[in-house]
Amino acid sequence: MSSNKLLILLAFFAMNSFQNVQAQLYSDDLYWTTTWLQGNKLSAGFQNKGYALVKGSFLYNSTAVTNDFVTQELYQQKTPNAEDTKFSVDRLKDHNTLGADVNASIAGGFRLADTSWLMDVGIGYRDFTYLYFTKDLFKLTFEDYTQYVDKYAQVGASNMREYNYSTLFVGLQKTISPHIMLGARVSLIKGGFYQEVNIEKGSLYLSDSMFQEYAQISAPFQYYSQERQLNPFAGDNGWGAGVDLYSRFCFNNTLLTAEVRDLGFVNWKNMDAYIGDKTYRYNGYNIADLLQPNNIGDPTPDEVAADMGIPKQRVSRRTSLPTKIQVGILQKLNQHVALKADVNYMFLPGYKPYLKATALFSAGHSFYFAPGLVAGGYGKINSQIGLGVTLGDSWSLQLNVMALEYLMARKNYAGHGVDIFLAKSF
Questions:
Q1: How many domains, in total, are found in the chain?
Q2: What is residue 6's predicted lDDT score, i.e. its pLDDT?
Q3: Is residue 425 within 8 Å of residue 396, measured between CB atoms?
Q4: Going by fewer Cβ within 10 Å, which terminus of the chain is more open, N or C?
Q5: Three-state SS for 227?
């Protein structure tokens, strides 16, 4: 998405690029789940000599903004009409969340000689976007602003951020016994782009009188952004490091997992910043132009900020990665049926615990069917369907799709995505 509506509205507010990519190999990946099920008994350790894996995925979800709205606004690059917008408006609460995630990685692992150590290496790219926003802020941006004339719109607390970076990672895991495995992965991070808008609790007042039109914001805010590269791999706006910790514990036909993902930081440089901590009044242009900036000659964010007396700064900034913790359980009922449940939490404003329940059905360990339900995170409730095929003795193709709501009720529901894995074991 490339929209400056919010940016112009608050002189610095932006929503950009709902594209996300990350490279990880974790217990909620369908490939690893089916790999563990291929023996007569579950085991905590990796059972082959090594593997090579290519992975890609995309996920969009929101507690409010529907699949139809995001399809028009982001994918088709057109403005949804009032009727289509109303489906999202009717889902709005006082505070709402939205996230998007596209994952891609190339990785490989190999056992160190005949030991119980496994080493993995890989490269990845991530662009993670997350929005936590008020009902009034969404309605100001995408509905008729005149409903707020001579009224106070609650624009905070709101937070919108985007991380864009590539990684080079290396990890080690140790199979302590058939029942216990511990592992860690260290990542070197090259920062490509970071943007954050934070609005603390406060309001926006609009006056549309015949004598003077103005917008007045009474909410502390911070806006940070950098120049975005056309080639996402070419960005060089910071450096950082991260670590992942993971473990597996096996008891008979039960496998427990516990993980910490993306524990780390990035030091961003060359950031433009607008920071305000008092009441600001904007008199420069027609309010309709501020809220619907689609015409040639509309004010730029720098012009609006200058008119409001907000200085532009060039700063460096350290941010934490969007750290996630996750626990899971896999229960093998027999050679053809297993049940799996995962719970995770990400340290983001308004993020709710994410729950996922999956049933796995296999036919001779060569075909897997895995329907599931997910709830929470930055969405509500969605269905998923996973399919897996083992090709020969060593190749595996896995597909996990969240599309039922998108195909059957696009205007009423949010959430769609796909995961795909191609792996070879040795």
A1: 1
A2: 40
A3: yes
A4: C
A5: coil
